[in-house]
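Hi support team,

I'm filing this because I wasn't sure whether my run with phosphoenolpyruvate finished correctly. The job status page said complete, but I'd like someone to confirm that the output block is well-formed before I use it downstream. Pasting the exact inputs I used:
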Amino acid sequence: MPAKKATKKKAVKRGAKKRTAATAVKYIYDFGDKTDGNSKLRELLGGKGANLAEMARIGLPVPPGFTITTEVCTYFYDNGLKYPTTLEKELKASVAVIEKQLGKKLGAEKNPLLLSVRSGARESMPGMMDTILNLGLNDKTVKALAEESGNEAFAYDCYRRFIQMYGDVVMGVQAVNENDHCPFEAALEKLREEVGVKFDNQLTAENLKELIKRYKEIIKKRTKSAFPQDAYEQLWGSVGAVFKSWQNERAILYRQKYGIPAAWGTAVNVQAMVFGNMGEDCATGVAFTRDPANGEKVFYGEYLINAQGEDVVAGIRTPNPIAKLKEEMPNAHADLEAVRKKLEKHFKDMQDFEFTVQNNKLYMLQTRNGKRTGLAAVRIAVELVKEKLINQKTALLKIPADSISSLLVAVFDPAAEKKAKVLSTGLPAGPGAAAGKICFTAEKAEQVAASGGHAVLCRVETTPEDLRGMIAADGILTSRGGVSSHAALVARQMNKVCVCGASEVVIDYGAGTLTIGDTVLNEGDDISINGTSGDIYAGSVTTAPSEVNQVLSGKMKAKDSYTFQLFDQVMTWADKYRKLGVRTNADSPEQAANAVSFGAEGIGLCRTEHMFFEGDRITFMRQMILASDEKERRTALKKLLPFQRKDFTGLFKAMGGLPVTVRLLDPPLHEFLPHDESSKRELANSLGVDVDVISNRVHALHEANPMLGHRGCRLGISYPEITEMQARAIFEAAAACYKLKKPIKVVPEVMVPLVGFADELKNQVAVIHRVAAEVMEKKKVKFEYLVGTMIEVPRGALTADEIAETAQFFSFGTNDLTQTGLGMSRDDAGSFLGKYKELDIMPQNPFASIDAAGVGQLVEIGAAKGRKTNKGIKLGICGEHGGDPASINFFHQVGLNYVSCSPPRVPVARLAAAQAALK
Ligand code: PEP
Ligand code: MG
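And here is everything the job wrote out:
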């Protein structure tokens, strides 16, 4: 596939350092009694490997093992899937270290060492890559395990699991198509039926021996090879499979979504097995040091008695909450509590860890900074500061800037939710409210979302294959699996509303129904889920603003909302450290007021054209456009003037003296004209002209490339009376504010769009100054104002020194600057950007996140040149990038004065600006 080739090529380009024969390269790091690594070696050892080493270093009970570095992964892909020549020797030596520590031997018929082989990238990619457990078992060692454990069924269960995993992952025995069942699962189910048991753990040793025989036959039949008996062959096969899984489709998709470079590669962790499935004094579980859904400081997690780790995460058996372990295994629970405290104190963050209890003894298998919802991220960071584990700056850097917006997500309207009937309640796994159409497959969810609808992906359980659907859906509902199931983990990370493990929900994919008690819903029906409480409702429940919004709008008291207090705390800290100002793009008093409540410090962009679409204005606007000469045009403009003046007065009042940048008319005029026949006729009637007049004018105004045509300042230059009317409306509104009983000292900032030549700006500035003088004279008030320009075409950026001689401020219009700088239509790029992303040509959509290397240079040049001739010039940015954290970081580095973004992004921008300053 070209996608894979391209990613591999990139890995070569950006990948491993060149080594010479003289430099001895260490490819394997041990952990256990002998520990080579630590948590700082994340790039080399991956997150899992680095933290296993760290846990061993600080004395936590970690079964011994070793990590094969990410450099081996890079080498593997750069060298036709081959390993460095020295790797084999290192691997044997490291296996020997484990053997020595445990007094066991890999492949030995007495005391055999069994291993697990797991992936571990720098950033965790849950469930995306492959894992092999119980490695080292064969027809002989299984007997030894049976004898030593005194539990034959356990030993053969391990062996059948190993064959199944190895057959699937290494030998490629999988379902052939969607309708096919995994052949191993099918064989297991058949055997359960034959012997008449419901659960796997009811199978006897004899049953399992029979199953193993059938598994081996499946492998032989499908691969024409026998399942390997040699432990080292098994080990190399498993290590190779894990490295190869770095390039499987799921992992590639996940990396694309989270911007993880292919060049990083994964490490491979090989570790001595411990068993949670050896009997009733064994268990396995996943726990969080705090609640990852809401951030509360409670010990949170789940476990299964007599099970292997994969059983918990896969969601096949619904696990018990960790609190129950206190009753079932009090000693192990106490040990876990101690580990929980030590981990937080050491890592200074909420940890997500995996453990196994073997014969009442606790072992730690993994720890990492836990994935969490946006709400939890905020709460944990704030509370860690209160607990003096971290300081404010660290706390700010710990909260992904985007996650603050999840405190602003909709909740169900309390009255509507009260009225709705709760059909059932599952586990609340991703907070917020989602209502949408029931979709049983990822494809269906994608379809619904693509057509502008809302989807709730409903699955018995989700697997990594469902990732696309989870991205597309507004909410996710599963009937099986606990809070650490795949659905819950991924939803949390994506900030999706999620209810999981709703065991009363019966989903029948074949029939296309979702049944809860007597209620039968079909695919496409509406369903509503509350990811904060876990409640499920039929139909579409109305949503209401978040608590933060309710407090900000005065509907709720701050003291009654802890969520608001957290939000407010983070915003206060952010404002203390940020250097960038944050303004908003708003065209109405309501939007402006909303943005101010979120902390906007001014309006960075008011698009005046948005004001012309309401009510009667469009008619006057059309009259203006259809005018055959200046006189007629002025008559129409005169009618528009009062509307504009009123709008600007409203905006200035809503901003209460904060700066307001008003941009003069920007879009091509034909956008305001009717295009279909009936609206042309309607307009002709209302204007008392023949329909042909309208058609001819529409035709005359038609442009092949309107984005590059008669728009921006070109309009005001052709028709200065438009600029005149708009300037008059702005200044008269300002004058009116000065004359209010409680005067507002407005300093309007008039912005000229699409300037590429200094003389374009000079032309417009002359009109604006003239009108300002006229208004001051007529209204008998003196007010200040600024005139500036957008820098949104490359020539404007390149000649910014000349333009800055006239401009008092620049606002970078990065939407158009990206469009014109890349020569890529902002309206049509969707058709190829997906492919560009897949091929890693442009990993990010350049209209969402600034193309720093290209368009970014234009911003840098524009800023530097502007400051050269006008030292104090004010510099802002008002393209969509103003609300994107990565872009905000870039604008901070360039030294702009402010960013301007849509109202709901204002809190995100405040936090991102602080992070940029603290980085
Ligand atoms: C821009 O081009 O970045 C801009 C803010 O203007 P508009 O999106 O209105 O073209
Ligand atoms: Mg623009």
